[in-house]
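Box 3.1 A note on notation
Throughout this textbook, protein chains are presented in two layers. The first layer is the amino acid sequence; the second is a token string describing backbone geometry. Keep the layers aligned when reading.
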Amino acid sequence: MDDLYVRIRQRAREIGSKYPEQTFYSDHADLMTLSRKSLEDSPILIKLHNFVASVVDDDLGHGLDHCVKVTIDAGILFLIHADQKNMREMERERGLLLVQAAGLLHDISRKEKRHAHAGALAAAEILEDFPFSQHEIDAISLAIRNHEAFHPPDPCASDMGQAISDCLYDADKFRWGPDNFTDTVWYMVSFFKSSVSMFLERYEEGIKGIVKIKETFRTDTGQQYGPEFVDAGLEIGEEIRQMLKDEFL
């Protein structure tokens, strides 16, 4: 990342740190612990994590840190869904594994023009070396294909597949909240070598898409908490915009 945007990101993070954590995490702290433990303890997920760490970068703000956040939040969303459906323990554990595998791999082809479609194909090939059935690989691959914003999702073959797809989408779109303004956007503008003045000129237009994402959450839990993520991000973004005018123009 360009030195200028390293400094801007640091200031953005300082601003973001003043805001409270989203209630999604405090309301589901026990499930967050379970999701994190699954990611840290599963040999399959450890192997996938190490693979992703070796091939992704942060040029577009969708590197390993982003993937891990999405993976943990997708796990929380799935565990909520499993509890709502009174899912059997074995099915619950397997579904958690699948949605977290999807989370780790969802941006594996982020620099491709049709990154969700390309990522789905890449994930299907990668997962052939892991102990998943073809049905499970298909479910993970479809979830990845369905995670792109403002594209209608393809139908899933099973209730489990639908849950994996919807939980992945919502976890990824949670990142359109504070994370977008404290991290993601600065990697992107640095990668594309945009000036601060150009960023500010395009700010209002860019915000329109972020506002629209509030209407697209797919799970009941995502619809409950997702708009809060986005609104918090927009509030942080306004303070950051003023900071840029005051300190970097």
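The chain is about 75% helix and 0% strand. The chain has one domain: 3-247.
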